[in-house]
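[STRUCTURE TOKENS]
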Amino acid sequence: MLLPYQSDRPPAKPPIIVVSLVLVHYAVFGLVALSMALRGTDGVVLLYANFSLVPAALKWYAPFSYSILHESVVHLSANMLFLWVFGGSVADAIGWRRFALVYSAAAVLTGLAQVGMAWAIPGAARDIPILGASGAVAAMVGVFAARFYRSRIRFIGLPWSVPAVGLLAAALITEMVVTGRELLAGSSADSGVAHWSHLVGFFVGMVLAQSTRIMKEGREEYRAADVAKAIGRGTPLAAVRKLDEALRKDPANAAVRADLGRAWAAAGDAEHALQHYEQAIKAMLAQGNKRDAAARYRELAEEIENPGLSAGTLLLVAAALEDQGDAPSAYNALKSLMALHPAAPEAEMAMLRCASLLLKKLGKPSEAGAMIESFLAKYPESAFRSHAEGLRAEGK
């Protein structure tokens, strides 16, 4: 069997959830081996019979416990190697909570699929325990190939890397051939390998990636990389053309619109850049996506000094930046609002928020005091006057 050892998309930070799973699997296997060495095989046989999936004697909890048990150290190590290479990148991309949910769901679904086929095929073995994490791991391979569809994998003994999509296609074809042979023969082709679990795992991973934001996130990441590459080559208008086409297909896609703003900025067209950035940021804020809205504003501020967004957008962006813990950028956005739209109703709130940030987040009480006095002088009838006076008292 070819074993992977590296992908060109390693996780950016240690995948704690994957490390934990690997350690737990080895710890369980070690405890089982120790028990067998000290007490003999009878207890281990009973343990496996109770906690693995046995189609003829299925326990209600077995779909949740079978995947943590393994037949041998080779069986365990092969599964853990695949989990490390593919699962680490998936966990890094989708977060540990979603990873844990996908992994657990895949383990249950693939195990039940193997049990179901054991009953559906007349001559299949129904008293042989089904165990191991290979179904859940297969789902991780499916998610990886859907999320990182341009990636390549290196295998031990192969001098070249293999496309992840090609690997998934080869695995699917292999499993479909074997399971098809089982159906035609009316019995298990190899009762020691859970082929139906593998096949269902690959499909579960792909379906979950395509039916959630996982695959969309991959497309957006690759598109942003293509834009950066075009800009780096000095051909931003080529990126503009591609992004225009993508936006026509999906006009509600805020990420595409923001990338288009970035490409126009690189082409030197500030007017078009601002137009697309503002629409993208407003859409992200409307969707409650404060993180991306804040990130895109910072990106815009690097491209264009004092970007002329509307007063309402700047006020909302400042709140998003503050919510993300970026007080300096929030302050700058509010200052831009006051400079660009001094007569706008939002300028009143912007001045008060600036004073609050100076006092509470930026550690500049004297500047905060001066701004509060300016606020009280400029807006003597303000509905927020009592709040301003409270800030003044707090700063003394």
